[in-house]
Structure formats: structure tokens, C-alpha cells
Design goal:
This protein is mostly helical. It has 10 helices and 4 strands. Helix 8 links the parallel strand 3 and strand 4.
Amino acid sequence: ITFTNAGADVFRKRIAKYNAIFGSGEPVDSMTAVTFNSFGQSILEDEYRMFGFTKPPRVIAPIERSQIISSILEKESIEGLDYRNFEIDMKNYKGALAVASECFRLLKQYGWDEEIISQKLGHFCSIETARSLSRLYRVYCGRLKKENLIEYSDQENLLLELLGKEPYYFEKYGFRHILVDECQDTSEAQFKILKHMAIVPSFESLMVVGDDSQSIYGFRDTTPKFFIDFENTMEL
């Protein structure tokens, strides 16, 4: 498991080359090389009915997301948002669309958390306005489900939802050895997924590789702390 599709492709090529030279006796074509998100997407495509979709979902494009949020905002005026400068998104000023888009992102990632909303949105959005937006957020999620759309974070969030219902779901994959590259940029959710991989009977080993001084994906709410405190994170 790594963090870019290009990185996963490098995995495949390097291991295939190593195997050609030294020979491990294992067929390389049976190896799974993925990102957390692409792995989650493949499972969502297999199990889409379980999540209430009518066909395999796809990740919504940014423009499409803005269009859906705009259409929802236009049907109900939310006090505290600037509808006159609807699409403005600047460092010191944000219109209704930008504020709602960010609030929806925070609700998707953290649920209702007043402290996080206050910290992330600051003076752009009061708690009262955020509460009103949380009602529209449920409408937004309904639209996505109806149109068989997901957001990028759903590729992990919905997988965790599935694992909550079926903790040994990964047993059917028969994973034996797991290698995680660039582990300094792993999130708490991703480590929860790893824990589920490590409890199946076929599991033999987990190796993580990283450098905490090279953590670069903090904007995705990843942190090196889970990697640094690996034993406690994995509850070894």
C-alpha cells in the first residue's frame, strides 16, 4: 500500500524485477499494489448495493460538487452567508458557496464538532450558520447517494463503515504480508483499516516504511504520530 497510483505502479515493477533476478517462488501477478483510496474504491464497486447505491459509485468531480451544492443553497437562504457574492473564494472573504463547500467537507470528515468548525471556518461561518448548513448537508448526502456519487474521503469512510459491520471482511482476500510505504503520511482511519487486515487468519507480517521528517500531507489530516507510535497505534 502506498499513497499515489504512480507509487503503486513502481511497487509492481520493482518487485517483478527483483523476483526475475532472485526468484521468490511466488507469482508476482497475484500481488496487490494499491493506494488506500483505490483499494476502498474497488471494494465500494463490489459491494455498492450494501451502501444503498444502485450502481458502482464514482468520485464526484469538483465542478459537479459545486453545482450540486449551489442548487441546494439556491432553494433555501441560510442566514449568515453572502449570497450576493455567491462564488467569491478569497483568503479574507468567502461567499455562500465557498463557506458551504468547506463546511460540508468538515462535516464529512469529522461529523458535527463545534470546536473544529470554529477553528477551521473562523469568522466566515458562525456556529448558528453551521447548524443550518448541517441540515442542508443531509440533503447533499442524499443527492450524492441518489446519483451514485461519492467524495474522495468516502473511499475510506465507507470502507470503515463496512468493516464495523463485518470486522473480518478482509478474510476472503487471504492477505499474508502487508507493506505500507510513506507511512508517515497515514491517517487514523487508514491505520484502522490496517488493523482489520492484520486480524484475519492468513495474516503473517506487517512492515511500514517512512520518514517522519518528510510528512507532507497534513492538509489531508494525516500525521506522522501514528507511524512514530506504531506499536501503540497497532496495539501490539
